[in-house]
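User: Teach me something about this protein's shape.
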Amino acid sequence: MPALQPFLEDLYDRYRDVSEGQLASYIPELTKANKDWFGISVVTTDGRIFGVGDVDQPFTIQSISKVFAYGLALEDRGRAVLLDKVGVEPTGDPFNSLIRLDEDSKRPFNPMINAGAIATTSLINGADPTGKLNRLLAMFERYLGHDVVIDMPTFMSERSTGHRNRAMAHLMLNFDMIAQDIDSALDLYFQQCSVMVNCQDLAVMAATLANQGRQPITGAQALERDYTRDLLSVMYTCGMYNRAGEWAYRVGIPAKSGVSGGIIAVVPGKAGIATFSPLIDKNGNSVRGLKVFEALSQEYGLHLFDLSMGRCVFTEALE
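Assistant: First, the predicted structure itself:
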Protein backbone atom coordinates (compact mmCIF):
# COMPACT_ATOMS: atom_id res chain seq x y z
CA MET A 1 0.00 0.00 0.00
CA PRO A 2 1.30 3.51 -0.80
CA ALA A 3 2.33 5.83 2.01
CA LEU A 4 -0.32 8.45 2.68
CA GLN A 5 1.42 11.73 1.81
CA PRO A 6 2.56 10.64 -1.68
CA PHE A 7 -0.90 9.22 -2.35
CA LEU A 8 -2.56 12.50 -1.34
CA GLU A 9 -0.23 14.33 -3.72
CA ASP A 10 -1.16 11.89 -6.48
CA LEU A 11 -4.88 12.45 -5.83
CA TYR A 12 -4.37 16.21 -5.91
CA ASP A 13 -2.64 15.98 -9.30
CA ARG A 14 -5.26 13.54 -10.57
CA TYR A 15 -8.30 15.69 -9.75
CA ARG A 16 -7.07 19.29 -9.67
CA ASP A 17 -8.21 19.93 -13.26
CA VAL A 18 -11.71 18.48 -12.78
CA SER A 19 -14.09 21.24 -13.89
CA GLU A 20 -17.45 19.60 -13.24
CA GLY A 21 -19.89 21.28 -10.87
CA GLN A 22 -20.88 24.85 -10.07
CA LEU A 23 -20.29 27.36 -7.32
CA ALA A 24 -23.16 27.57 -4.81
CA SER A 25 -25.34 30.47 -5.93
CA TYR A 26 -28.26 30.51 -3.50
CA ILE A 27 -25.98 32.28 -1.01
CA PRO A 28 -24.60 35.15 -3.11
CA GLU A 29 -21.38 35.51 -1.10
CA LEU A 30 -20.34 31.94 -2.01
CA THR A 31 -20.17 32.81 -5.72
CA LYS A 32 -16.97 34.79 -4.99
CA ALA A 33 -14.97 31.58 -4.41
CA ASN A 34 -12.15 30.61 -6.77
CA LYS A 35 -13.10 27.50 -8.75
CA ASP A 36 -9.50 26.29 -8.65
CA TRP A 37 -9.24 26.06 -4.85
CA PHE A 38 -8.57 22.46 -3.87
CA GLY A 39 -7.11 20.97 -0.71
CA ILE A 40 -6.87 17.58 1.01
CA SER A 41 -5.94 17.19 4.69
CA VAL A 42 -5.61 14.25 7.08
CA VAL A 43 -5.05 14.57 10.84
CA THR A 44 -4.49 11.46 12.93
CA THR A 45 -5.75 10.85 16.45
CA ASP A 46 -2.17 11.19 17.73
CA GLY A 47 -1.82 14.62 16.11
CA ARG A 48 0.11 13.97 12.90
CA ILE A 49 -0.83 16.18 9.96
CA PHE A 50 -0.77 15.36 6.24
CA GLY A 51 -1.96 17.63 3.47
CA VAL A 52 -1.68 18.96 -0.06
CA GLY A 53 -3.04 21.94 -1.95
CA ASP A 54 -5.06 24.85 -0.56
CA VAL A 55 -5.33 23.48 2.98
CA ASP A 56 -4.91 26.96 4.51
CA GLN A 57 -7.49 28.75 2.33
CA PRO A 58 -10.25 30.18 4.58
CA PHE A 59 -13.91 29.56 3.75
CA THR A 60 -17.19 29.39 5.66
CA ILE A 61 -18.05 26.08 7.27
CA GLN A 62 -21.72 26.08 6.17
CA SER A 63 -23.61 22.80 6.79
CA ILE A 64 -20.63 21.00 8.32
CA SER A 65 -21.40 23.14 11.37
CA LYS A 66 -24.59 21.12 11.87
CA VAL A 67 -22.61 18.17 13.22
CA PHE A 68 -20.94 20.18 15.96
CA ALA A 69 -23.99 22.23 16.91
CA TYR A 70 -25.84 18.93 17.34
CA GLY A 71 -23.13 17.79 19.75
CA LEU A 72 -23.44 20.97 21.81
CA ALA A 73 -27.24 20.67 21.94
CA LEU A 74 -26.89 17.05 23.09
CA GLU A 75 -24.59 18.15 25.91
CA ASP A 76 -27.00 20.93 26.87
CA ARG A 77 -30.30 19.03 26.66
CA GLY A 78 -29.59 15.30 26.45
CA ARG A 79 -30.77 12.65 24.00
CA ALA A 80 -34.40 12.51 25.15
CA VAL A 81 -35.06 16.21 24.52
CA LEU A 82 -33.23 16.19 21.19
CA LEU A 83 -35.13 13.14 19.97
CA ASP A 84 -38.41 14.77 20.99
CA LYS A 85 -37.68 17.76 18.73
CA VAL A 86 -35.47 16.34 15.95
CA GLY A 87 -35.46 12.83 14.50
CA VAL A 88 -32.53 10.76 13.26
CA GLU A 89 -34.02 9.28 10.09
CA PRO A 90 -32.44 9.87 6.67
CA THR A 91 -34.47 11.52 3.93
CA GLY A 92 -33.96 11.43 0.19
CA ASP A 93 -35.17 15.00 -0.17
CA PRO A 94 -32.97 18.07 -0.68
CA PHE A 95 -31.37 19.58 2.43
CA ASN A 96 -33.58 22.70 2.17
CA SER A 97 -36.89 20.92 1.61
CA LEU A 98 -39.83 22.81 3.08
CA ILE A 99 -42.21 19.94 3.59
CA ARG A 100 -40.26 17.12 5.20
CA LEU A 101 -41.55 17.06 8.74
CA ASP A 102 -42.55 13.66 10.07
CA GLU A 103 -46.29 13.21 9.51
CA ASP A 104 -46.90 11.82 12.98
CA SER A 105 -44.44 13.63 15.25
CA LYS A 106 -44.05 16.84 13.16
CA ARG A 107 -40.32 16.70 13.91
CA PRO A 108 -37.69 17.45 11.26
CA PHE A 109 -36.35 14.13 10.04
CA ASN A 110 -32.74 14.64 11.18
CA PRO A 111 -30.30 17.35 12.37
CA MET A 112 -28.29 17.36 9.12
CA ILE A 113 -31.03 18.97 7.00
CA ASN A 114 -31.78 22.67 7.40
CA ALA A 115 -35.05 22.29 9.28
CA GLY A 116 -33.48 19.89 11.78
CA ALA A 117 -30.38 22.05 12.14
CA ILE A 118 -32.45 25.18 12.89
CA ALA A 119 -34.42 23.27 15.53
CA THR A 120 -31.19 21.86 16.99
CA THR A 121 -29.45 25.24 17.19
CA SER A 122 -32.50 26.74 18.91
CA LEU A 123 -31.94 24.24 21.75
CA ILE A 124 -28.45 25.49 22.62
CA ASN A 125 -28.39 26.97 26.12
CA GLY A 126 -27.73 30.64 26.85
CA ALA A 127 -29.30 33.49 28.78
CA ASP A 128 -29.75 35.59 25.63
CA PRO A 129 -28.70 35.55 21.94
CA THR A 130 -25.21 36.84 22.79
CA GLY A 131 -24.75 34.17 25.44
CA LYS A 132 -25.79 31.43 23.01
CA LEU A 133 -23.45 32.74 20.33
CA ASN A 134 -20.54 32.91 22.77
CA ARG A 135 -21.14 29.30 23.83
CA LEU A 136 -21.31 28.21 20.19
CA LEU A 137 -18.03 29.98 19.36
CA ALA A 138 -16.35 28.54 22.45
CA MET A 139 -17.41 25.08 21.30
CA PHE A 140 -15.80 25.59 17.88
CA GLU A 141 -12.64 26.85 19.57
CA ARG A 142 -12.36 23.66 21.63
CA TYR A 143 -12.42 21.62 18.41
CA LEU A 144 -10.05 23.89 16.49
CA GLY A 145 -7.59 24.86 19.19
CA HIS A 146 -7.63 28.52 18.14
CA ASP A 147 -9.94 31.54 18.01
CA VAL A 148 -12.73 31.58 15.45
CA VAL A 149 -14.41 34.42 13.60
CA ILE A 150 -17.69 34.80 11.75
CA ASP A 151 -17.55 36.09 8.19
CA MET A 152 -20.00 38.98 8.39
CA PRO A 153 -20.61 39.36 4.61
CA THR A 154 -21.66 35.70 4.44
CA PHE A 155 -23.82 36.02 7.55
CA MET A 156 -25.59 39.07 6.11
CA SER A 157 -25.93 37.34 2.73
CA GLU A 158 -27.57 34.31 4.34
CA ARG A 159 -29.73 36.45 6.60
CA SER A 160 -31.06 38.57 3.72
CA THR A 161 -31.72 35.68 1.32
CA GLY A 162 -32.68 32.84 3.72
CA HIS A 163 -36.41 32.96 2.99
CA ARG A 164 -36.78 29.17 2.75
CA ASN A 165 -35.13 28.76 6.13
CA ARG A 166 -37.46 31.38 7.57
CA ALA A 167 -40.44 29.50 6.15
CA MET A 168 -39.19 26.26 7.75
CA ALA A 169 -38.86 28.01 11.10
CA HIS A 170 -42.45 29.29 10.96
CA LEU A 171 -43.70 25.82 10.03
CA MET A 172 -41.84 24.29 12.98
CA LEU A 173 -43.15 27.03 15.28
CA ASN A 174 -46.64 26.04 14.23
CA PHE A 175 -45.94 22.48 15.41
CA ASP A 176 -44.15 23.58 18.61
CA MET A 177 -40.79 22.25 17.46
CA ILE A 178 -39.03 25.57 18.15
CA ALA A 179 -39.70 28.47 20.51
CA GLN A 180 -41.32 31.81 19.65
CA ASP A 181 -38.13 33.82 19.00
CA ILE A 182 -37.63 32.73 15.39
CA ASP A 183 -35.37 35.62 14.43
CA SER A 184 -32.85 34.85 17.18
CA ALA A 185 -32.84 31.14 16.31
CA LEU A 186 -32.27 31.88 12.63
CA ASP A 187 -29.54 34.43 13.33
CA LEU A 188 -27.67 31.88 15.44
CA TYR A 189 -28.03 29.28 12.69
CA PHE A 190 -26.78 31.70 10.02
CA GLN A 191 -23.87 32.69 12.29
CA GLN A 192 -22.80 29.10 12.87
CA CYS A 193 -22.80 28.48 9.11
CA SER A 194 -20.64 31.59 8.61
CA VAL A 195 -17.78 30.51 10.91
CA MET A 196 -14.46 30.67 9.05
CA VAL A 197 -12.34 27.52 8.76
CA ASN A 198 -9.83 25.98 6.39
CA CYS A 199 -9.33 22.42 5.17
CA GLN A 200 -6.82 21.53 7.88
CA ASP A 201 -9.19 22.92 10.53
CA LEU A 202 -11.88 20.57 9.30
CA ALA A 203 -9.54 17.60 9.42
CA VAL A 204 -8.67 18.50 13.03
CA MET A 205 -12.39 18.66 13.89
CA ALA A 206 -12.98 15.29 12.24
CA ALA A 207 -9.96 13.81 14.05
CA THR A 208 -11.46 15.02 17.32
CA LEU A 209 -14.55 12.93 16.62
CA ALA A 210 -12.33 10.01 15.62
CA ASN A 211 -10.61 10.44 19.01
CA GLN A 212 -13.82 10.17 21.08
CA GLY A 213 -14.19 13.92 21.37
CA ARG A 214 -10.63 14.72 22.48
CA GLN A 215 -8.78 17.27 20.33
CA PRO A 216 -5.66 15.42 19.14
CA ILE A 217 -3.29 18.40 19.25
CA THR A 218 -4.35 20.36 22.34
CA GLY A 219 -5.77 17.43 24.29
CA ALA A 220 -8.91 19.40 25.16
CA GLN A 221 -12.14 17.41 25.51
CA ALA A 222 -14.27 19.17 22.89
CA LEU A 223 -17.27 16.84 23.24
CA GLU A 224 -18.36 14.42 25.93
CA ARG A 225 -17.09 11.09 24.61
CA ASP A 226 -20.46 9.41 25.15
CA TYR A 227 -21.99 11.66 22.48
CA THR A 228 -19.45 11.00 19.71
CA ARG A 229 -21.45 7.89 18.86
CA ASP A 230 -24.55 10.04 18.21
CA LEU A 231 -22.71 12.42 15.89
CA LEU A 232 -21.03 9.65 13.91
CA SER A 233 -24.32 7.79 13.54
CA VAL A 234 -26.22 10.71 12.00
CA MET A 235 -23.21 11.62 9.85
CA TYR A 236 -23.14 8.09 8.44
CA THR A 237 -26.83 7.93 7.61
CA CYS A 238 -27.69 11.58 6.90
CA GLY A 239 -24.52 13.62 6.39
CA MET A 240 -24.20 13.81 2.62
CA TYR A 241 -27.51 15.44 1.71
CA ASN A 242 -29.57 13.27 -0.64
CA ARG A 243 -26.47 11.33 -1.70
CA ALA A 244 -26.09 9.81 1.78
CA GLY A 245 -27.03 6.29 0.67
CA GLU A 246 -24.61 6.25 -2.25
CA TRP A 247 -21.85 7.64 0.00
CA ALA A 248 -22.46 4.87 2.55
CA TYR A 249 -22.29 2.34 -0.30
CA ARG A 250 -19.21 3.70 -2.07
CA VAL A 251 -17.13 5.27 0.74
CA GLY A 252 -18.59 3.82 3.92
CA ILE A 253 -17.43 6.14 6.73
CA PRO A 254 -19.26 8.90 8.66
CA ALA A 255 -19.12 12.20 6.78
CA LYS A 256 -20.65 15.64 6.35
CA SER A 257 -20.51 18.07 3.46
CA GLY A 258 -21.22 21.78 3.03
CA VAL A 259 -22.16 23.87 0.00
CA SER A 260 -19.02 26.01 0.32
CA GLY A 261 -17.09 22.93 -0.84
CA GLY A 262 -15.91 21.23 2.33
CA ILE A 263 -16.31 17.56 3.24
CA ILE A 264 -15.23 15.96 6.51
CA ALA A 265 -15.06 12.24 7.21
CA VAL A 266 -14.09 10.20 10.25
CA VAL A 267 -12.11 6.98 10.41
CA PRO A 268 -12.99 6.03 14.02
CA GLY A 269 -9.95 5.58 16.23
CA LYS A 270 -7.56 6.56 13.43
CA ALA A 271 -7.98 9.93 11.73
CA GLY A 272 -10.09 12.76 10.42
CA ILE A 273 -10.05 13.54 6.70
CA ALA A 274 -11.17 16.73 4.97
CA THR A 275 -11.31 18.02 1.43
CA PHE A 276 -12.09 21.47 0.10
CA SER A 277 -13.11 22.40 -3.43
CA PRO A 278 -15.99 24.82 -4.04
CA LEU A 279 -17.35 23.27 -7.25
CA ILE A 280 -20.40 21.30 -6.07
CA ASP A 281 -22.83 18.90 -7.72
CA LYS A 282 -26.63 19.17 -7.83
CA ASN A 283 -26.86 17.67 -4.33
CA GLY A 284 -24.49 20.25 -2.80
CA ASN A 285 -21.42 18.00 -2.49
CA SER A 286 -17.93 18.92 -3.70
CA VAL A 287 -17.22 17.11 -6.96
CA ARG A 288 -13.46 16.81 -6.44
CA GLY A 289 -14.03 15.88 -2.81
CA LEU A 290 -16.27 12.96 -3.71
CA LYS A 291 -13.65 11.60 -6.10
CA VAL A 292 -10.90 11.91 -3.48
CA PHE A 293 -12.86 10.07 -0.81
CA GLU A 294 -13.89 7.25 -3.13
CA ALA A 295 -10.24 6.76 -4.08
CA LEU A 296 -9.05 6.86 -0.46
CA SER A 297 -11.70 4.38 0.65
CA GLN A 298 -10.85 1.97 -2.14
CA GLU A 299 -7.09 2.25 -1.74
CA TYR A 300 -6.96 1.85 2.05
CA GLY A 301 -10.05 -0.23 2.79
CA LEU A 302 -11.74 2.49 4.84
CA HIS A 303 -15.31 1.22 4.34
CA LEU A 304 -16.77 0.17 7.69
CA PHE A 305 -17.88 -3.15 6.21
CA ASP A 306 -14.74 -3.93 4.21
CA LEU A 307 -13.75 -6.76 6.51
CA SER A 308 -11.33 -8.26 3.98
CA MET A 309 -8.96 -5.27 4.36
CA GLY A 310 -9.93 -3.30 7.44
CA ARG A 311 -8.30 -0.28 8.94
CA CYS A 312 -4.96 -1.98 9.48
CA VAL A 313 -4.12 -1.02 5.88
CA PHE A 314 -4.80 2.64 6.61
CA THR A 315 -2.73 2.39 9.78
CA GLU A 316 0.22 1.09 7.77
CA ALA A 317 -0.08 4.02 5.35
CA LEU A 318 0.23 6.47 8.24
CA GLU A 319 3.60 5.07 9.32
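Now, about its shape. The beta strands are 39-44, 49-53, 59-60, 196-197, 255-257, 262-267, 271-276. The chain has twelve helices and seven strands. If you'd like, I can walk through any region in more detail.
User: That's plenty for now, thanks!
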